[in-house]
Amino acid sequence: MAKKPENPERPGRIKQLKMIAQIIKQANPKGMPIVYASVLGTFVLCIVIGLITGWIWYMVFLGLMLALTVGLVVFGQFAQRAQYTLLNGQIGAAAAVLQSMRGNWEVTPAVAVNREQDVVHRVVGYPGIILVSEGPPNRVRKMLNNEKKRVARVALDVPVYDVQCGDGEGQVPLAKLQRHLMKLPRNLRKPAVSEVKYRLRALPQNLPVPKTPLPRNVRMPRGPRGPKPKMR
Fold first, then answer.
1. Can you list the alpha helix ranges (DSSP code H) found in 123-172?
2. Which pLDDT does position 121 carry in this prediction?
3. What is the Cα–Cα distance from 98 to 67, expressed in whole angstroms?
4. DSSP state, residue 86
5. Quick one: 104 exposed, middle or buried, by C-beta within 10 A (0-12, 13-18, 19+)?
């Protein structure tokens, strides 16, 4: 079978790592030195243990593997923080984070937008329906209430949550948004989630689009997998 032609616009793995390293340097100049120090420190520790125990060659091999693993973990953590830092404050940043969540989640960005370009996104998952806003609390509260009433027409007995994403009092920071949704109770079975998605498609979509485009093709690190739903 003929090989699929490679996409010339898609960077290679090494190039991607270099790009991410540049993002880390931009967001936190101390990030990459800490990554290098974690790799070197892990390897040196294994060598010392090898000299003490007499298993030097075994610990050299093990040290290389452990150093690479630790370096990748630390690198991934800094990359995640850097991407959150760069996204924070942009219109649609919450949508980019929500769309990178693992599991049975359906995200509909910008179901409500006002003149100030505050936005409400809709998420459907095992907890039910979650409305996530971006903007000051005094402006988005009315938007969330209006969207709750609109969703209630088809939600019936499905739980509806509202979450304000932001740095204000009572809001959920962008970096903690995925974790916050993962902690919500699992109220629905998988067939019920599909039924809710089908009902919501019946709602009219005649809302204005914000002047500033939502972030597209943002490569966000995958969030933690949520626990399997517990049925009531």
1. 137-155
2. 95
3. 32
4. H
5. middle
